[in-house]
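tool=predict chain=A
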Amino acid sequence: MYDCFVGRDEEVVPFRARQLRKLLCDLGPSFIKAGQVLANRPDIIREDYMNELCILQDDVPPFPNEVAFSIIEEELGRPLEAVFSKISSQTIAAASLGQVYRATLRDSGEDVAIKVQRPKIEPIIYQDLFLFRTLASFLNGISLQKLGCNAELIVDEFGEKLLEELDYTLEARNLEDFIENFKNDPTVKIPRVYKQLSGSRVLVMEWIDGIRCTDPQAIKDAGIDVDGFLTVGVSAALRQLLEFGLFHGDPHPGNIFAMRDGRIAYVDFGNVAVLSQLNKQILIDAVVHAVNEDYAEMANDFTRLGFLAPGTDVAPIIPALEAIWQNSAGKGLSDFNFRSVTGKFNQLVYNYPIRIPERFSLVIRSLLTQEGICFTLKPNFKFLEVAYPYVAKRLLTDPNPALRERLIQVLFKDGMFQWKRLENLIVLAKENVVKMSSNPALQKKDLQGSRQVVNKLDLKDTIKDGARLFLIDEGIRRQLLLALTEDSQLHVQELVDVYRLLEDQIDIPSMALEVARDFPSVVRDLMLAWTESVLSDR
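tool=predict ok
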């Protein structure tokens, strides 16, 4: 306030930002964690302060080994020597809430990572949260005006996530959930957890012997194809976000590794976030609305996701959203990147009553961090070139009926059927299936040694649902018939082009058998729809 009063607020921002970071370090773990959260909250602080606070995510001093080893022994109920044949004398990593050592199990000789919590941290955090909440109560008026919610709500969201991270038994469950989600994915490695050696303050996990994702030369030297590895990473991130609804909330370079067999490995699952089925569908809606340039619906998506309070007038936000998307995608979608969009989005949320819910601040941070890693590995990396094939495959093959509705929205724009868009979706989906038939990070090596088995698009559900909709839904039937006769011409050539793209993907006899099996239920639904229309007419 003094800087602003004397007119030198801009020139001293770097100094004040460093002051704030050092002050938070001195105040202890809760304040360090708060600084890490603020580093991803453009709705609360300015971007120049955010950049300085990002340092807190990597630069935290460790606590003494003697204290850490004492806590491990307390949790195990026996001496370290009885369980581990050796343990590192230096920490492998240190964070605001705990630190990590490398050890070897005495019984099996397996290498493990031991994560141990900072001493007496829980009462300190409860005390700090009480102080945060008390201070927040004085800021409710400003917060309501600026963000559309009480400041205490923001503290409660922060406190909930912080207390979850304190419970290492919860992190162990997160690990098991990730292992279950990726159990059939040969491109992703999740470390095994040793629950019998773990507790609320100590977590023992399989040691990940990987290459840091910020070392492109080491990755190449290991025989891993960088482009293929980027495809693996983006696919794994999108599956977490759009398929499982459970995603890693802190994928910084110290938490992601390249395995020598081409898999991507994740560690540190204390900070994860969950998206409901509804939120996943709204995110896909937002992508569809962006593709169709429907900015009014994009603004409404903000309200549905909790960025805006219910009843907020979205009219002033629509032109700003349009400007952000047009500027970002104007050079072509291949040049799109999250960093440029987020910079403009930060200004939007700072100037309008937009509050970023905690889970979505994690989503934004997660995407930005992973994109940053991708740029380190490949400076001219194009996110959408890698992401679109996965999204196309999901839209065309996912058995979820809600996604089928989104596919229809994508294929129609202003009442016109987008034949070219359908062809592009099929081409991109086929590209994704071919790439992911085996680990793309090792495909060049595999091609030299063995013959690849290439999977096909599984379009059975999509074709059956399409046929069902055509027979039952009069609106869809009318739209598709109009699509075939748009501009007073019969679009036979477009239909032939689509068939040629799909003919090597569809087994006609098995598809006919599936349709025959489904025929009775289709007839039943058709009769019910006809009966309902007759009754409604009366």
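Confidence is low (pLDDT under 50) at residues 447-453. The chain has 25 helices and 13 strands.
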